[in-house]
Amino acid sequence: MPSDQKPKLTKAPVFWLLVLLLLAAPYQTGLFFQREWLYTQVFVALLLVLAVFTRRKNLRFFSHWLDFAAVGLLAAYLAGAARAVDARSAVAELLKLFSFLAVYWLTAYGGWSRRDLKVLLTFLFWGGCGIALLGVLTALGIYQISGGYVEGRIYSTFQYPNTLAAFLGFMLFLGVFLWREGKSRWRLVYLPGLYVIVVCLIGTGSRGGLGVLILVLPLLFLILPPGARKDFFYRLLLAFGLGIPAAAGFLRYLGNSNSAAWIVLAGGLVLAGLAGGLPEWLQRLQLRQLLWPGVICVLLAAGLLFVFRTGGLNPLARLETASLQLHTFQERLTYYKDAIGMVSQSPVFGFGGGGWALYPRYQSYPYWVSDPHSQLVKVAVESGLLGLAFYLAWWLLLGRAAWRRSRQGDEVSAVVFAGLLLIAVHSLIDFDLSFGAMGFLVWCSAGVIMAGELKARVGWNRAGYVTAAVLVLAGAVGLAAVSISFLQAVE
Hints:
The chain is mainly alpha-helical and about 500 residues long.
């Protein structure tokens, strides 16, 4: 992340409109449906035009190999669109990818200070807490979200629990980082926020989401700067230690006695509020090294014991049935196998956006599914092996940059990349990145990581400015024009 001696919070309209875009996206059913997504693309186009005219001296691109990989992926989708089975879907996917690239560019090349980017991440975290809170309130019947609570599982605004779990996993890592970074008394509110996130995360009952979270934790420990590891994990385990037993009690009473569920939820929230200053308090008493592990172990032991002894609605118990032999997992393996047959028919450029619609021609047995439930498979089908190569290169280059930043002591790059890794791994077995809000989160987070890498290279260059200005303006006009025409067709 860029560092300034005396950073001042930016007043640039582009920055605050970008924050608004990222904050609002998850609340619009995660931007999964076409109508909300098209309106958002028009907003992105206007934001790009504003950026060209207000940030002229910072308009650069192609300063890192990651940029070339991103544009290469866009070009592969453009090539795939030339032979697309559904031109409308192909153009829609192309515009979606361009919008993600625009958010990356606005974040990485905006010239924002470290404080600006921390404020951006803070808004993202509290927006995520809002999503979790709405999910919990919907489960209680206090707030109504269509499809927000189904068969004992919390879906919230995403209307899909598995993607919600991946989203909340990212916010969990981010919240612990912001809690550690907090200097004022406001830092005490982060643990209650994390508590709500853990309760909602457990309430999703997502085997894949919780399983991937557990899988990524050792990688998070590895990538974190050595000096931050112990305190980060103590805080993370404290959030789990409070959230797991509260979630178990809350979900047990939910539906049978909402008043009891309220008491459990509120009691845990009060306890989280009181425990927010526990790390600093123990440190001042010089008891931290002895008491922290004991406190965490007691809380987790009590929580796990309560979880597996409770009855009623208990989504966490779904983990006991996690297996590679599950019918849902075996079905997805069939989708992936059939997708290989599709890619073999058009290996270089794929079938363009929406190409999965051809799957009935290649399916092993009759089934119906609108998405292959894997971003890797989706990219291969839509943009061929060329697009898949650029996609994998993008992730590898981003990981390399995050690792380098982390070794230089940049904790936020490590935490953000661990959150992105959680989403990326989960997207191998689900359609998380078909949600526009998740795409924005991934590409914006990549921009946060790359901002520190790129700051030294960003400066005034007339040729670079002209190139960037022409590309951005042309893309913005095209994005707005096509999105408006699609909207007219929808209406």
